Amino acid sequence: MMNNEKQIIFYNANSAYFNVHGLPFASKEHPFWRLPDDVFISQTIEFLKQHPSGAYLSFATASPSIRIKASVSSKAYMPHMTATGTLGCDLYIRKQNSWVFLATTKVNEENYDITIVEGLPSKRREYRLYLPLYIALNHLAIGIEENYTIEATEPIKPEKIVFYGTSITQGGCATRPGMNTSSIVGRTVDYEIINLGFSGSAHLEPEMATVIAQLKDIKLLILEVEANAGDALVLKDRLENFVNIISQTQSHMKVMLISHYPYALAAYKAAIKARFVDHYHFQKQLCHQKGWEFVDGEVLLRKLNFEESVDGVHLTDLGFYFLAVALKKRIKNLLG
């Protein structure tokens, strides 16, 4: 489709001009869903699986300007999370061997068509466009100037790191899509990153484990589930079996289990503190028995003195960044 006024040609995001990363279960009918169309786990996950958290497009073009045309299911709907993080797209550019943030879509509309960057010197550059964290993406097209070409880059990597967890894993409450932990980590490792964070819904269902087990060549499974599974009283009952189901199809998969992140009220409410201590010892002992990597979530962020949170629970960009830095070191130690 061509816009004559600005001489922009749009290319559908789920076309051969792009590689779409982080969505191994996507279908032609639902190209931005994180789980298979025909899998039902819970009503909440049925809603959240439509949010393409952690996914991105990779492409290259020499076009001086890039436009984003998107249709999402609603405007931003959370008081503690920005519109850019909820429904926006982040554009990153390759600079030598690193990925550098370039621009974001500053908009809060169900349908938007905006120029995300313009006036660049004409030169072929590689880009990543990160997709919304907390909204269903119904349609996405990338526009470039007429007489320029666009092509897919970064072939999908066979080896994977899978993040499964709570709203924090999904990206609540990053200010923009590129700032959730899985995306920050993904810019520094040579693995395909799959984000399966589901807000309030990391309940370790065996059906979810069966879906994850369908993936091939998982090198590392990172679990952050206590805040949901612990409150739902299923952590002790389901955790070991959840990993066992996935392990049956993965010959070389390693497991990292992260306990609860800092929570200020735990310092003042004895019942919360006692529950955290109980879950801490259970998870640490199970990791020791199974040969998994145990990571104390509270220790990871303790030095930030609770400044890493937007509401006492969910992380800000500060928290996501520090968490990613800590996890990158552990991932390198585990996978080399």
The CATH class designation of the largest domain is Alpha Beta
Helix content: 25-40%
Give the distance, in angstroms, between the N- and C-terminal Cα atoms.
46 Å
Proportion of residues in extended strands: 25-35%
Shape: globular
Total strands: 16
Radius of gyration based on Cα positions: 20 Å
Find the structural class using helix and strand composition: alpha+beta
Structure annotation, total helices: 10
Oligomer: single chain
CATH topology group of the largest domain: Rossmann fold
CATH superfamily of the largest domain: SGNH hydrolase
Mean pLDDT: 96
Q: What are the low-pLDDT stretches, counting only 5+ consecutive residues below 50?
A: none
- Tell me the domain tally: 2
Proper CATH architecture of the largest domain? 3-Layer(aba) Sandwich
**What is the succession of H and E elements?**
EEEHEEHEEEEEEEHHEHEHHEHEHH
Largest sheet: 6 strands, antiparallel
Describe the structure.
This protein has 336 residues and is of the alpha+beta class. The protein has two domains: 2-152, Galactose-binding domain-like (Jelly Rolls, Sandwich); 160-335, Rossmann fold (3-Layer(aba) Sandwich). The protein has helices at residues 43-48, 83-87, 167-170, 181-186, 206-212, 226-230, 235-247, 270-290, 297-301, 317-335; strands spanning 2-3, 8-12, 19-21, 56-61, 66-72, 90-95, 98-104, 111-117, 125-130, 137-145, 150-152, 160-165, 192-197, 218-224, 254-258, 293-295. Strands 3, 4, 6, 7, 9 and 11 form a six-stranded antiparallel beta sheet that branches. The protein has a five-stranded antiparallel beta sheet with strand order 1-2-10-5-8, with no helix packed on it. α5 runs parallel beside α7 (235-247). The model has no long low-confidence stretch (mean pLDDT 96).
